[in-house]
Every structure is written in structure tokens, then in C-alpha cells.
Specification:
The structure holds two protein chains of two kinds.
Chain A (H helix, E strand, L loop, with lengths): L1 H5 L1 H18 L2 H21 L10 H31 L1 H6 L6 H28 L8 H28 L3 H6 L1 H6 L15 H8 L2 H13 L5 H30 L1
Helix pairs in contact in A: 2-6, 3-4, 3-6, 4-6, 4-7, 4-11, 6-7, 7-11, 7-12, 11-12
Chain B lengths: L2 E12 L2 E12 L3 E5 L6 H8 L7 E6 L2 E2 L4 H7 E4 L11 H11 L5 H11 L15 H13 L5 E5 L7 H16 L3 E6 L2 H7 L2 E6 L2 E6 L1 H6 L15 H13 L2
Parallel strand pairs in B: 3-8, 3-9, 6-7, 7-8
Antiparallel strand pairs in B: 1-2, 1-4, 4-5, 9-10
The chains are: A mainly alpha, B alpha/beta.
Chain lengths: 256, 252
């Protein structure tokens, strides 16, 4: 119906407002999301960092892109948690029996994930600045960094949507995030891949995190990025499209 | 008489389990209709089909004149659902829950509507508290209040009093009667015989996937042998005693 299409964006806005209230009323979710990456950053910079040879004099600069990806991977676990709770509580049934577009409820959660992850990342970058992170990147490079991070968040958020809808328990809803959080450790996020044994190295060099980390690192240090950037974008878009299509088909099956 | 709901030959199975085997009934506009049945009889399945949450395998169902399969959006414009589990947002306050629904129904001038609902359901004092602090009865009241936002013509209540204490149950009954008095059609499911007896203009009994009896209470009573007149000293039930005692204390 026309009215439903016309109000689609309004309805998404209302849904976004609702779950943002959830986040601001339980600040612990943002703190929990930020605290683990900060701890990892402190550990690697002040404990292991001295022994790691990356060829740069500023290890915080080297580390930050990987830390941001870990932040996103743990942030989206809360998206699937919130979605799972909604599916359980009956509030989705109420929304679905109302004259609003069904996907508005889902998009509300997706946008909330983007906003809350952005907040966490700002916190992490501020901590990194205190720890000595410096960037020579210009405005355009920073915009590109923000764009890649947003795209990566969006792609993983749709993965989280699938997990949240298919989970049988609260624990299951968040468990899928653990391998994602672990992925940056087997990449160029902490150490150069050249130091790894060949099998591990082949994996590390061909998984999405490495190209995304390398692209972000180059952008932040003001170096040319052409190749990594396209590979990174291809990974993000590929995951995004696949996860979105799968999520929508699960959603239609669960809520039809 | 115009029908608000019309159901003919409704069928639904989950995998091998045949839940509805050809259900027929009609609900008059402005009446209270109770669907009675034991747990697992398929009451919720019927509610889900009528509220467009589930597709039937066979048969026809129209709500407010609209076919549920071909015109689900028009059906959704006409109805409101209070499901079996309270569909409230725990982290928001009672008022915020109502405002959210009012906005989703694109109402303007929200304040008087919301204040009136809070008042009618005795939630004015708790309006700005989070729903997670509410009692079961308050939550149910808010749930029903949320369903009334925007004055839908037909209200579905799926076991509205299951799990409520006697006091809260009577409050819900009062609300349902008031709604019907104002012309809203109420479709409710229940497993309590007394509830159907108290509220419903017409009652249908769902058993093993079919409506095995339907009619007014008097019509249903006629299906049974005439009542014998016996004189028994009437003892108050425990429920009556309970209500009498707490009614005095709280004065509500």
C-alpha cells in the first residue's frame, strides 16, 4: 500500500530511536564493546610491542586498524542479541500485525548497529591518540577510512542479523562473533605476514581482514593504497550482499 | 448483520501435525467472540492467520471484509493484536511504549491520546517507569493499551488473562466489556470457561482442529440436558473470599 511505502523511512527512524534508547540506557554494552579492544591494544603496545618488528617506529599506528576491526566484530554480537530478544518477546509480532513495512523493524536494528559501532570506534581512536597514535591522513583519506569501516560494519551486521534470527538461545545469538573477533589475529593486523609459517601465511594473506587492515593502514599513513583498497571493498561488498540476501530469506521464512 | 470476521474451511498443518482441519465461524461486528479450547487446540494458530502473521494451507479468512492472504495490509489497518506473550518493550517506559506505537500508526497530537490511555488503564503513576519494573498485571494492561492506540476496529486478544492474578483478570474483563460497548469487535481466545461465560456474546469451542460447538451461552446450554433444580447451600469460592479481602484493603 502507498501509505506504507510513504512512511517507510519514518518507521525506520522510530525503530532506530527505540533501539538507540536501549543502548543509551544500558551503557555497559558500549563499554563492554570498547573495553576488550582497548585491553588488547594496551597489551600489544606496552607488553608485546617491544619484541614485535613491524618496520615502523610507531606500533600504535600499525595496530589501530586491526583493533578497530576487532571492535566491530564484538560490537555486532550485541545486534544479534537485541534482535534475538525482540524475536522472543513478541514485540516483532506486534510490529508485523501493524500496517508498517516488515523490514522496518530489521533496518532499525541495522542502523543502530552502525551508530553504536561508530561511537565505540570514536572511543577507541581517542584512547589510541592518548597512546601516541598519529596520522598524516587528510580529510579525504579519513572519509575513505570511515567509509570502509562503515561498509565492514554493515556487512558484519547482516551476518549478525542471520545469527540473531536463527539462534535458539541467547548464548547462541552471540557465539558466532568469536571466530570473527579472532580473525584479525591471523592477519597482518598485529605482525607482518612475512614472519608467519607458509600455511598460516597463505591463509592470512588471503582472508578479508588483511586487505582491509592494509588499506586502512595505508590511508592513515598517507600512502598509496590502490590494490588493497579494491580487494578490501570487494570483500566487504561480497559479504554484505551475501549476508543481506540470506538474512532476508531467513526473515521471510521466520516472519511470514 | 455485518460480519467483522468470516472464516470458512480453514486448514493449517505444521509438518505432519494437522492443527486446523476445516474451521468455520463468523464474528458479528461489535460483538465479543470467544474461541474456547484446551492448550494446543490451535487457538493461537487461528489468531496468527487472522492477524496476517501466518499463512493458511487452505480455506478462506476475511477480516473487516479484506482477505487475509491477498490484502494483508488492509487487514493490518483494521486490527490490533495482543499476543500471548506481553509485547511490550521492557527497557522503555510505559509512556514511551505507547508513544512508539502511536508514531508507528502516524497519529498526530499524541499527548491527549496517550494520557487518556494511561489514565484508563490505571498506569498514570507508573507511566514514566521502565516496563521491567511493572507487575504482570500492569504489563498486560499496558499491552492491551498499546493495542488500542489508533482505535482499531477489531481487537484480537490471545489468552489475555493467562498467568494473571484474579484481580488483574477482572480488570482485563472490565476493559474488554468497555471496548465492546463502544463498538469495537473483540476476538478473544481463552482456556477458562468462566471467562467465555463472563464476556462473550458468542462462543465457539475448538477441539481437535474443528469447531465442535458454537452459539450464544444459552444456545450452548440447550445442547445439554435440562438443568435439575437442587438446593445446595452456597459456599463462597476461595476466589470470592480472596477478592473480598483485598478489595477492602486496596479500595480499587
Amino acid at each position: 500500500m502507498e501509505a506504507i511505502k510513504r512512511h517507510f523511512l519514518d518507521d525506520i527512524g522510530i525503530m532506530l530511536g527505540r533501539s538507540m534508547r536501549h543502548i543509551f540506557r544500558s551503557m555497559d554494552t558500549i563499554i563492554t564493546v570498547a573495553i576488550t579492544p582497548i585491553a588488547i591494544m594496551l597489551l600489544f603496545v606496552y607488553v608485546f610491542g617491544g619484541a614485535i618488528k613491524t618496520g615502523t617506529d610507531n606500533y600504535v599506528n600499525y595496530l589501530l586498524p586491526g583493533i578497530l576491526l576487532i571492535t566491530i566484530a564484538s560490537g555486532i554480537a550485541y545486534t544479534s542479541y537485541r534482535l534475538f530478544i525482540d524475536m522472543q518477546s513478541g514485540i516483532f509480532e506486534r510490529f508485523h500485525s501493524m500496517p508498517i513495512a516488515h523490514s522496518a523493524a530489521l533496518w532499525g536494528h541495522v542502523l543502530t548497529s552502525l551508530v553504536s559501532n561508530a561511537i565505540s570506534m570514536v572511543v577507541i581512536i581517542l584512547v589510541a591518540l592518548i597512546m601516541g597514535f598519529r596520522s598524516s591522513a587528510g580529510v579525504l583519506s579519513w572519509l575513505a577510512v570511515a567509509g570502509i569501516l562503515a561498509l565492514f560494519t554493515l556487512a558484519l551486521t547482516w551476518v549478525a542479523v542471520i545469527a540473531g534470527m536463527s539462534a535458539k538461545s541467547v548464548d547462541g545469538a552471540g557465539a558466532f562473533a568469536y571466530p570473527l573477533i579472532f580473525l584479525p589475529f591471523i592477519s597482518s593486523a598485529f605482525v607482518p605476514t612475512t614472519s608467519m609459517p607458509s600455511v598460516v601465511r597463505i591463509f592470512a594473506e588471503n582472508q578479508p581482514v588483511t586487505s582491509i587492515v592494509d588499506a586502512l593502514r595505508a590511508l592513515l599513513s598517507g600512502q598509496p593504497v590502490v590494490n588493497d583498497l579494491w580487494i578490501a571493498l570487494a570483500w566487504c561488498l561480497g559479504i554484505l550482499i551475501l549476508a543481506y540476501l540470506l538474512a532476508m530469506s531467513v526473515y521471510k521464512r521466520k516472519a511470514a | 448483520m455485518e460480519n467483522a470476521i468470516h472464516v470458512k474451511g480453514l486448514q493449517k498443518s505444521y509438518k505432519k501435525l494437522n492443527v486446523l482441519k476445516g474451521v468455520d465461524f463468523e464474528v458479528e461486528k461489535g460483538s465479543i467472540f470467544a474461541l474456547l479450547g484446551s492448550n494446543g487446540a490451535g487457538k493461537t494458530t487461528i489468531v496468527k492467520i487472522l492477524t496476517t502473521l501466518l499463512k493458511q494451507d487452505g480455506g478462506i479468512a476475511t477480516v473487516n471484509g479484506f482477505d487475509v492472504t491477498s490484502m494483508p495490509d488492509s487487514v493490518r489497518q483494521s486490527i490490533s493484536l495482543t499476543g500471548q506473550f506481553a509485547a511490550t518493550d521492557e527497557i522503555l517506559t510505559g509512556r514511551e511504549n505507547l508513544i512508539m506505537i502511536a508514531k508507528l500508526r502516524h497519529l498526530t497530537n499524541l499527548r491527549p491520546v496517550i494520557d487518556d490511555l494511561l489514565n484508563r488503564f490505571g498506569l498514570s503513576d507508573a507511566a514514566d517507569r521502565r516496563v521491567s519494573t511493572y507487575s504482570g498485571g500492569m504489563r498486560r494492561r499496558l499491552d492491551i493499551a498499546m493495542s488500542l492506540v489508533g482505535k482499531p476496529q477489531i481487537i484480537f486478544l490471545d489468552e489475555p488473562t493467562t498467568g494473571l492474578d484474579p484481580e488483574a483478570r477482572i480488570e482485563v474483563w472490565k476493559t474488554v466489556k468497555e471496548l465492546a460497548a463502544k463498538g469495537t469487535t473483540v476476538f478473544l481466545t481463552t482456556q477458562y470457561l468462566e471467562e467465555a461465560e463472563q464476556l462473550a456474546d458468542r462462543i465457539a469451542i475448538l477441539h481437535e482442529g474443528k469447531i465442535i460447538a458454537s452459539g450464544t451461552l444459552d444456545e450452548l446450554k440447550k445442547l445439554f440436558p435440562p438443568t435439575k433444580v437442587e438446593y445446595v447451600e452456597k459456599q463462597p469460592t476461595l476466589e470470592e473470599i480472596f477478592l473480598a479481602i483485598i478489595g477492602k484493603k486496596e479500595g480499587k
